[in-house]
Design a protein that fits this description.
Layout (H helix, E strand, L loop, with lengths): L18 E8 L12 E10 L1 E5 L2 E4 L5 E4 L5 E5 L6 E9 H5 L8 H4 L4 E2 L3 H18 L6 H22 L7 E3 L2 H13 L6 H7 L4 H12 L3 H18 L4 H7 L5 H12 L3 H4 L2
Antiparallel strand pairs: 1-7, 2-5, 2-7, 3-4, 3-6, 4-9, 5-8
């Protein structure tokens, strides 16, 4: 029997070091800021009138679509109407946990450029029941539930990797919100360690500060300053986990000084950079 959807949990961090799965149903969709995770996300869209923004690309979603989102990618849902139904299953996978399964074999689906998969009727019959079973078993407290859920997880990941090998992305359902903003995002991604003031960016792209700010906020849904901070923190977190010292990470990620880095990191994650690696 399919489990009833859960109430939405706004947190964007994991409470365990393996995986978590949620089945959400919002009757009244809410605004969500652009955000990122330090883990992999498999997003199964079930119902609603919702597009999805991932690093400058927008995906038109249909029921049964699957999106794969990497830890380095900023993203957010784009509900069409405030009263629109929004139902989905979200699977979070810890980076180390996933890397240790079969020496990272099941990571391959995330290493490709493909993001959106539109399933055939046969693929839907094979994959969608696995999502339902995993949600149900994960949230049970019966004998052997955790082991059973882990077995389902391996089946699901194996099927998704086979899908990524055999199928192309549903690229017809993807569009770039703005070539100009796409270029700005790419520039920030390449130059995050450098000075990226609004004045410098406007000068580089030969536009006014007002035009740049307005177009960026319209397309991305957040300010340039906020986006740059998120991008830097995203990379900083990964570097810390790789064993690089907080002081060096602060410098590598373009923060003016360690105090600035510490304050932003603590605000975003609730822990200090040193606590992140303990």
């Amino acid at each position: 029997m399919q489990r009833k959807p859960q109430g939405f949990d706004p947190r964007q961090d994991m409470n365990c070091d393996s995986y978590e799965i949620f089945h959400y149903l919002d009757i009244k969709t809410r605004h969500m800021e652009v955000h990122f995770h330090n883990f992999y996300e498999i997003f199964l869209f079930l119902d609603g009138d919702v597009d999805y923004w991932v690093e400058g690309s927008v995906y038109h979603l249909k029921s049964g679509d699957i999106l794969l989102i990497n830890p380095t990618e900023l993203h957010k849902p784009l509900p069409k109407e405030e009263t629109n139904t929004y139902e989905r299953i979200v699977l979070w996978l810890d980076k180390t946990f996933l890397s240790n399964i079969e020496n990272g074999l099941l990571l391959k689906c995330f290493e490709q450029d493909k993001k959106l998969y539109r399933l055939s009727s046969t693929e839907r019959k094979e994959l969608l029941p696995l999502f339902d079973k995993l949600v149900n078993e994960y949230h049970k407290d019966d004998f052997g539930s955790k082991a059973y859920a882990y077995g389902i997880l391996l089946q699901l990941l194996t099927q998704l990797n086979r899908l990524s090998i055999s199928r192309v992305e549903a690229s017809s359902e993807k569009y770039i919100t703005s070539t100009f903003i796409s270029d700005v995002l790419a520039y920030i991604g390449e130059h995050y360690s450098e000075n990226l003031s609004l004045d410098d960016l406007a000068s580089h792209f030969f536009v006014s500060k007002y035009y740049l700010s307005h177009e960026f906020k319209k397309s991305v849904g957040t300010s340039i300053h906020r986006y740059i901070i998120l991008k830097r923190l995203n990379i900083a977190y990964s570097l810390l986990l790789d064993g690089i010292s907080p002081t060096e990470v602060s410098h590598l990620c373009g923060f003016k000084d360690y105090t600035n880095f510490f304050r932003n990191f603590k605000t975003e994650y609730g822990i200090s950079p040193k606590e992140c690696i303990q």
